[in-house]
Design goal:
alpha/beta, 2 domains, 13 helices, about 45% helix, about 15% strand
């Protein structure tokens, strides 16, 4: 008897929606290839993390109610970001500690929420992808993905099966890039020092491409690398795994003049 395809809701994330929609399309492609029925709830907005990290619990709570409503009824919620995934899975329930009903709904949602790459490998059993990427890459472990969502071996396992790809590890791939959401705004000098150190670690690998699973980290590192004159390309790992890099410029680099625009 055939099993029904799991009904998966994609939480796109604000940064992906505004800065890198390709990551969302790559996530859909990977999920559908894994056998999922993918939907993108139109009512979704932010996960509430910026307000939460800034101490504005009232706003975060209001946003959280919207998350609960938008993502109810799905088998799984999948997020191409360890940061937003961590917010929904670990922090959202605590916004409703004074309301047992909402707290129970938030805990149930958290239990169904997964980061994209971890979901593919740990839930859907994906162990290889049909993609190629000729070149050398290095991988940055984002803080939330690593420490809140348990991501470490999973992206490396899938990258190992990408034709033509060679992974070169940084000396300290787990060290923060200095983004940290509102951290980089509150403490710009410290953040700049941290991302500069990360850029040195990236350069030392000799890799021509930097990958990660969180767009915030990628935008931060791409900006620093660009300002330092680096030629290292920066991409979300989902774009490489989905084979969607041919017509999409690296993060932080614009398309050539005339391309991708209406005539």
């Amino acid at each position: 008897m055939l099993q029904a395809r799991p009904r998966v809701a994609l939480f796109v994330t604000c940064l992906v929606d505004l800065h890198r929609p390709t990551v969302g399309f790559a996530a859909i492609k990977l999920l559908e290839q894994a056998g999922c029925q993918v939907e993108v709830p139109r009512a979704q907005t932010c996960c509430g993390q910026p307000a939460y990290n800034s101490g504005d619990r009232a706003t975060a709570r209001d946003i959280g109610r919207g998350v609960l409503d938008a993502f109810s009824g799905y088998d799984y919620v999948v997020v191409p970001s360890g940061s937003c995934g961590g917010m929904i899975k670990h922090h959202l329930p605590h916004l409703f500690d004074d309301d047992p009903n909402l707290r129970a709904r938030a805990e149930a949602l958290g239990g169904r929420t997964h980061e994209l790459i971890g979901f593919l490998t740990d839930v859907m059993g994906v162990d290889t992808v049909a993609a190629s990427y000729p070149g050398t890459v290095t991988y940055h472990d984002s803080c939330s993905g690593l420490r809140e969502m348990g991501l470490k071996a999973q992206p490396r396992a899938l990258l190992a099966g990408v034709a033509g790809l060679e992974l070169r590890e940084m000396v300290e791939p787990e060290v923060c890039c200095g983004f940290g959401g509102t951290f980089c705004v509150k403490y710009p000098e410290i953040s700049t020092r941290m991302v500069s150190e990360k850029a040195k670690d990236v350069a030392a690998t000799g890799a021509d491409t930097l990958l990660a699973g969180d767009l915030g980290c990628l935008l931060n590192m791409a900006g620093r690398l660009s300002r330092e004159g680096s030629t290292v390309q920066v991409r979300h790992v989902a774009e490489v795994l989905a084979g969607m890099t041919g017509d999409v410029p690296p993060i932080g680099q614009a398309r050539a003049a005339g391309k991708g625009r209406a005539a």
